[in-house]
Amino acid sequence: MTNPQAPRNKRFVGPGAMPPGWSAPLPPSPNETPLGLPPTEEELEAAAKLQDHMLENLAKTSAPTAPQPQAIPTHATNAKPIPLNHNYMTMPKTSHVRANPLAGFFRKPGISVKLPSGVGFYPQEMVELTPTGELEIFPLTLADELILKTPDALLNGAALEQVVISCAPGVKQPKRLLSPDLDVILLGMRYATYGNILNVESKCPKCGTENSYSINIQQCLDAVTVMEHVLEVHLDNGLRVIVQPFDFEAAIKAAAAGFEQAKMIQILQRDDFSEQQKMIELIKITRKMSELQALLVASGIQEVILPDGSTVRDPQMILEWVTNTSRGDLELLEQEIKKLNMAGVPREHEVKCTNCGNQWKAELSYDPTSFFAKSSSK
Ligand SMILES: [Zn+2]
């Protein structure tokens, strides 16, 4: 079905070269920096505004009883002076901004990780790596932790983006991150903040006993594999489809789809709903899910090659085609994109039941909400 050895790598001219179709996977937003060009002053100003706006949102998304951080922490590697709050009690009243003598005591990167997408997938200026080709990850700040503990952290793209900006400052455009890279970054944050051991619980599928087991994060990160850039899927109707893993925005849509699915299960279990009410709700959710499914599959498609060799890269045209394609083809494409999404970091862990001895493979969820929720109560 697929041909990972396809000679498409030739089209990747080197690190930073863009794969076919990558240049415009989504309609660019009006204030987005064109790739390959250094940002202009207006763009920098717009970015600063955007960041202020996101920080405002951050304050809104925090738990109401949570303490608000006094100053926004910046990184030791960031050479810019720190914009300290004027009401900050220890701030001496000077007319000009001085370098902060505490800068040397800011948090340090906790770990460097290898990204599953390799270096060649993104435009050159998008990810800044160490000389050994790794990405530095900083521990979570208090504000980051509060964001990740918000129940719908993954559904809130701006919140998650803020945490990536804070903990992986080498990533310049978090929204363009591919999903396998995002998972490795989250795992790195977990390591940098709470250490190597991740305690997870998994219910035995045989006897129902809740088993807890530990995952060695360092081992997982060492086992990260660099994936093929793109995959080609051949459909029976003669079309060839170039697929890629989800990016950040698609990953958020996927989380929303998972959320809908969970809602569906809850509705089925409700006793206070009549069969008819259940049916109406299920139809609504099914409709929403199939819309999301089409959007997701379309976002994992770089280009479609017609039998005559011509190609379609327009995201809108691709979405229209996906919405009107056969169920079988849709499922095949979905399956191949999912495989790519799972690339990189090991997800399945062998678990043995303490009660009945049954062995099974438990899947580790990278949903930050569950991933970081229990972690601080060590
Ligand atoms: Zn068991």
The kinds of small molecule bound in this structure are:
zinc ion
Helical proportion, percent range: 25-40%
**If classified by CATH, what would the architecture of the domain at 231-341 be?**
2-Layer Sandwich
SSE succession: HEEHHHEEHEEHHEEHHEEH
Q: What share of the residues does DSSP label as strand, in percent?
A: 5-15%
Q: Give the spatial strand order of the biggest sheet.
A: 5-6-7-8
**What would the CATH topology of the domain at 231-341 be?**
rbstp2171
- CA-to-CA gap between the ends? 47 Å
Query: Mind describing the biggest β-sheet?
Result: 4 strands, antiparallel
Number of helices: 10
Mean pLDDT: 75
Radius of gyration: 23 Å
**Mass-distribution shape:** globular
Q: Which structural class fits the helix and strand makeup?
A: alpha+beta
Q: Class of the domain at 231-341, according to the CATH hierarchy?
A: Alpha Beta
**How would you name the oligomeric state of the polypeptide chains in this document?**
single chain
Low-confidence stretches: 1-36, 58-95
The strand count comes to 10
Q: What's a concise summary of this model?
A:
By secondary structure, the chain is an alpha+beta fold. It has 10 helices and 10 strands.
Comma- or semicolon-separated keywords:
alpha+beta; globular; two-stranded antiparallel sheet; rbstp2171; disordered N terminus; binds zinc ion; 378 residues; 37% helix; single chain; 10 helices; 4-stranded antiparallel sheet
